[in-house]
């Protein structure tokens, strides 16, 4: 799917420009497509984060939010990059009213490895082929200020770019290292996209299963992100139906030629009935 391009400058960049009237008129405006945010350095060189692709959906529009150099955003494991030197790509699913339904972030550490975080209750079993892996999931990321405290860099980085919408679940996976270095992905997702509406006790007990399945698919996409991260479709986001086939072409029948049939000549009366 082709993701639309939309860049948002960080709010700190707009506030810093308030002291200069001329800069204020241009610095806080939405930059044109293809221009990275003012406070984020564009990625240069051969190291790049994987391109983020996503299937189309009827609940919103996917936007490419930039490919920049940023600090390592994950806060629950060793950081393989010092300073804002991690190639980072961001994409978001936004509703027509401006609400962000999903934010997906992909980061790479080209020259290093990044071990998995220590296992906690947030680790998802079956997140990788060997059963261990680095897949973590938090169904309510902002409850009790969890995201702000555990992933403060990620929280502030998104908040400065007005990419914060609540409620949101947090899903993250990390590939410790390989030929292309380490990669870590984050997905901040509106729970309505991965959890059904519960009406019975059975619904409540089984309500988390679609989210777990989506998280495992997201982890598989992270492990297979060789140049592109393919975001799996959300289980409760209706997909766009394929376009209807064009109506058949109606061809007028060929013109017909009418032939007049003359009535038969009346028979002369029979002699025996005269």
- Class by helix and strand content? alpha+beta
**What gap, in angstroms, lies between the N and C termini?**
93 Å
| Average pLDDT over all residues | 80
Strand-residue fraction? Answer: 15-25%
Q: Based on CA inertia axes, which overall geometry fits? A: elongated
The proportion of residues forming helix, as a percent range, comes to 10-25%
Largest sheet: 8 strands, mixed
Number of DSSP-assigned strands: 10
Radius of gyration: 30 Å
Low-confidence stretches: 12-40
H-E order: EHHEEEEEEHHEEHHE
Number of separate helices: 6
What does this structure look like?
With 274 residues, this protein is α+β, with helices and mostly antiparallel strands. The chain is 18% helix and 21% strand. The protein has helices at residues 11-16, 21-27, 146-150, 152-160, 201-206, 209-223; strands at 4-5, 41-42, 51-53, 61-70, 86-94, 100-109, 136-138, 169-175, 182-189, 228-230. Strands 1, 2, 4, 5, 6, 7, 8 and 9 form an 8-stranded mixed β-sheet that branches.
């Amino acid at each position: 799917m082709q993701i639309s391009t939309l860049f948002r400058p960080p709010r700190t960049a707009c506030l810093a420009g308030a002291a200069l009237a001329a800069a204020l008129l241009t610095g806080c405006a939405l930059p044109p497509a293809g221009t990275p945010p003012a406070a984020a350095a564009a990625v240069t060189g051969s190291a790049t984060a994987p391109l983020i692709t996503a299937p189309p959906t009827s609940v919103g529009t996917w936007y490419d939010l930039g490919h920049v150099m940023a600090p390592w955003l994950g806060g629950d494991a060793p950081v393989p990059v010092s300073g804002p030197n991690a190639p980072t790509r961001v994409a978001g699913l936004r509703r027509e009213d401006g609400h962000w339904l999903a934010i997906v972030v992909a980061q790479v550490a080209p020259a290093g490895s990044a071990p998995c975080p220590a296992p906690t209750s947030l680790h998802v079993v079956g997140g990788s082929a060997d059963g261990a892996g680095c897949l973590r999931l938090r169904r309510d990321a902002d409850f009790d200020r969890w995201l702000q405290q555990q992933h403060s860099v990620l929280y502030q980085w998104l908040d400065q770019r007005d990419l914060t919408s609540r409620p949101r679940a947090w899903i993250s996976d990390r590939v410790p290292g390989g030929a292309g270095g380490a990669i870590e992905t984050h997905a901040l997702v509106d729970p309505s996209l991965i959890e059904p509406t519960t009406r019975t006790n059975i619904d409540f007990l089984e309500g988390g299963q679609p989210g777990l399945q989506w998280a495992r698919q997201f982890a598989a996409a992270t492990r297979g992100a060789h140049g592109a991260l393919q975001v799996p479709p959300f289980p409760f986001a209706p997909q766009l139906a394929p376009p209807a086939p064009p109506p058949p072409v109606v061809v007028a029948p060929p013109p017909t030629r009418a032939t007049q049939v003359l009535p038969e000549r009346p028979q002369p009366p029979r002699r025996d009935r005269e």
